[in-house]
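batch job 7 of whatever, protein = Tetratricopeptide repeat protein 29
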Amino acid sequence: MSILPPVQIQCPKEHPDTEEVRCPSPAFARMHLIKGKDAIDRYLAMHIKGLSKQEAAAYRNSYKKNICIDMLRQGYHKSFAELFTLIEKWNALREASGPGSAIWLQKSLEEQPEKLDQLHFFLTSAEAAQRSEYYEEMYLNQLSLAYCFNKSEDRWLRNYFYEQCYKTAQLIKIDGGRKEAEAHSNMGLVCEEQGQFLKAAEHYEAFYHLTVGRIWKDETGRTLNTLACEHLWRIYTLLADKMLQNKEHQQAIKTLIKAFEMAKEADNKNMEAEAAFCLGLAYHSAGEEDTAILKLNAFLELSKILGDYGGIGRAYEALAQVLVSLGEVDEAITYLEKFLNIARKVQLTHNLVDACTFLGNIYNERGNYSKACEYFDQAFCAANVLADLPLVNETKVYCGIGKAHNMMVKVNSHTGAADHVGIIYLLAWKENRNDMCTDPFTVGQSGTVALPDISTDAKEEEPVIQIS
């Protein structure tokens, strides 16, 4: 279970539509136009006299085989080997996943002519650039292939070509390291996507160091250095969350301080606020409550500057948790009531449930069961509005706990008295079980409770006790 709030893991940026990077028709397009047995027979009937042996073979061969033959004829042996290896890798992945898996139901790579066309064009273009030592052009062709395979089912291909881009970028010496920096960024995103956070952090740190002092910008106008700071803030926060789960509090705090510094360097107030909040939670987990309060107050002030009511509510809730651990319950209740007012004001229903549940638990622990029931009921009503069944069930349990405690106060008072009237009351309640929270001994609307006949004389009139 995550200790820090969830940090969204970013996938690699949106790439251009594959239509924009489609390769032009290959020189041997004529052999690709005729597909299917009927089309072949019709063509042969019309052109049988002028059909060479090579042309006949082209029409009879599979699309993949024609692609491979063309690569070899043009001398692109490396591209042929790479294409063949990728097809074999896809088949191995499919076999390893087994029948019924998602990849098992997909078409194989060799059965998708459009993808084969993309691979043929860009692989041969990259190989030609490599022969001429135009490594930047080679990098761009490999990057275009990564862009082509950005769909979820093709991620393994995209990741493969990002790795190729990373290797090629090391050979480019004329751009001051920009391509290498971009390659580190892409590899970091791939590792982050696969949950390899330490490896991702290494790539992001390399990306950051290559962009320090540079004015390089991406297509949105942001500097690459700012982007590197954002990546590092995110990955440090994810790493710290893992450390907190493993009770490595001091290491987590050091990592979160680095995340906070990256957020400040990026000049992003939202990120800075989140970093301060996570630091506050980490100090609280480590038992350093005074420092936790300082960081949470910093988060509160930043949230107020940003006009983030949700953030303000989270700050009040976190401060209340810290104060409860310090035994300052009355002050914690003050913060929680502020949290509750904000949740109602801006209709943050989830926060409303949290605030009411927290307040209910505090009053329940202090023995004020009627007040606890009131807040638990509010939490239950708010959960019903959300139509969140697990949350509804959870708040229902809290309501049951509060009502049971409230009822037990009255039951225990009669049990503790151990007198004749108390026993009669308990027996009457056991028979009726009416309105346990308000008054477990009230029956009907007449204001009287009919007590059971406990005398040995069957003819004696049943006593009636008036309830004022």
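notes: The chain has a mean pLDDT of 82.
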